[in-house]
Design brief:
With 141 residues, the protein is of the alpha+beta class. It folds into two domains: 65 residues, no CATH class; 54 residues, no CATH class. 33% of the residues lie in helices and 16% in strands. It contains five helices and six strands, in the order βαβααβαβαββ.
C-alpha cells in the first residue's frame, strides 16, 4: 500500500477516496479513528492517510494529474471598468452587514446589490453585462 495523500480531517480524505473509487481505483483511509478521538492527534500522527495498492499507483497518478481543477466555463470574467485590471473581488461589505444584522437584530437585512472592488485602483464598480451571460431571445428562435 502506498500513501498518496494526507489530510487533517477524515472528511477530506474520504472525498479523495470516493473520487478514486468512482473511476475504479480502490482506496483506503487510514488513521481516521485516531483523529476522530481527538483532532489534535492529526498533527501528531501525520494526518489521515489515503492509500492505494502498489499496482494502482500509476493509475492514481494519472487520475490525479488529469483531475486538476478546470475553470468553470460559465464563470464570468470581471474586469475593472476604471483601469481594466482583472485583479478584482466581490465587495465583502453586503455580506458583512447581513451577518451583523443577524447577530444584532436577529433578522437578516439582505443587500442584494452586487458590486465589485478593484484591488489595483481601489474603485468600486458594477460590471457591464457580458454578451455571453444572457443570450438574446433571438438565440432561441
Ligand atoms: Zn481598477
Amino acid at each position: 500500500m502506498k500513501t498518496i495523500a494526507t489530510f487533517s480531517l477524515p472528511e477530506e480524505a474520504h472525498l479523495l477516496r470516493t473520487r478514486l473509487e468512482s473511476v475504479g481505483i480502490p482506496a483506503f483511509v487510514q488513521d481516521e479513528h485516531f483523529v476522530q478521538l481527538d483532532w489534535l492527534y492529526s498533527n501528531a500522527i501525520g494526518g489521515v492517510r489515503v492509500q492505494v495498492a502498489d499496482e494502482d499507483l500509476e493509475a492514481t497518478r494519472e487520475f490525479l494529474a488529469a483531475d486538476a481543477p478546470q475553470p468553470c466555463p460559465e464563470a464570468e470574467e470581471v474586469d475593472c471598468t476604471w483601469c481594466g485590471s482583472s485583479d478584482v473581488e466581490l465587495d465583502p461589505w453586503p455580506r458583512l452587514i447581513s451577518y451583523l444584522a443577524v447577530l444584532i437584530c436577529r433578522f437578516p437585512f439582505l443587500y442584494t446589490r452586487r458590486r465589485w472592488r478593484c484591488l489595483r485602483c481601489h474603485q468600486y464598480f458594477r460590471p457591464k453585462p457580458s454578451a455571453t451571460a444572457w443570450p438574446d431571445s433571438a438565440d432561441f428562435e
